[in-house]
Amino acid sequence: MTALDLLLPSTCAGCGLRGTACCTTCLSGFGPPAPVQVPGVGPPVWTLAAYDGVARELVLGFKERGARALSAWFGALVACALMAVGPGPWTLVPAPSRRSAARSRGGDHMLRVAQAVEIASVAPVLRLSSGVVDSVGLTAGARRRNLAGRVEVCGRPPPGTTVLLDDVITTGATAAACVRALRGAGVRTHGVVVLTSARPHQPGE
Ligand SMILES: [Zn+2]
Fold first, then answer.
1. Which of 33, 46, 133, 178 is deepest in the core (most CB within 10 A)?
2. What's the gap in Å between 147 CA and the centre of ligand 1?
3. What CATH number should be reported for the domain holding residue 94?
4. Looking at residue 196, what is its pLDDT?
5. What residue numbers bound the domain in which 124 lies?
6. Helices and strands (DSSP H and E) totals, the chain
């Protein structure tokens, strides 16, 4: 928080309501963890919302528009989701951002969410090598190729339930590449928790 944050009244990153970083109406766009079918990832995936409407606005506000105070709200939502993955102790492994993207956002946004989850430890052991380009607009195959062999593991999470954490799952290419890289380093990922899912709704699956 900067001095400016203290002087300016905050507004809801979802709807613009004054006086809070996230109003209760917008927060109710997120729910308990719901399973998402994402072929090729491996461990089960849970999402807290669909990537549309106000949930999408809040994620974009946090990620791209500097609504940093949302990390506390997202952290609380993620904490509530961890029991779905397995018993504690939990370790959160944030999905890595491209270094240039993290720089322009003033830090790694998913690391900030992970650090706001008070009941879990955080192991920021994944990094993207410099050849990775922005995946927006890439096809599923191009996303996979973009990440192939470019997720580096630099460390080991402590024993317990290891949970990969990301903001949005689309094709699953990022989650799959992270899980594969961890497996290659001898680390089992027990589950993936994402704030939002951009995958089509698949009733009954
Ligand atoms: Zn709102």
1. 178
2. 35
3. 3.40.50
4. 97
5. 27-197
6. 8, 8
The CA 81 to ligand 1 mean position distance, Å, reads: 22
Q: 197 C-alpha to center of ligand 1: Å? A: 20
The answer to the question of residue 17 being in a domain is no
- 75 in a domain, yes or no? yes
Q: How far is ligand 1, taken at its centre, from the CA of residue 17, in Å?
A: 6
**Nearest CA among 195, 194, 172, 184 for reference residue 42:** 172
C-alpha of residue 18 to centroid of ligand 1, in Å = 9
pTM of the model: 0.91
Number of domains in the chain: 1
The yes-or-no verdict on residue 43 having pLDDT over 50 is yes
Question: Could you tell me which residues come within 8 angstroms of residue 112 by beta carbon, excluding any fewer than 6 positions away?
Answer: 68, 71
Per-residue pLDDT averaged across 133-155, rounded?
Answer: 90
- Tell whether 154 is covered by a domain: yes
73 lies in some domain: yes
Query: Which residue type sits at 102?
Result: A
Give the DSSP H or E segment for 104.
helix 99-104
pLDDT at 152: 96
User: How far is ligand 1, taken at its centre, from the CA of residue 65, in Å?
Assistant: 15
Q: What is the pLDDT of residue 204?
A: 43
The DSSP secondary structure of 184-196, one letter per residue, reads HTT----EEEEEE
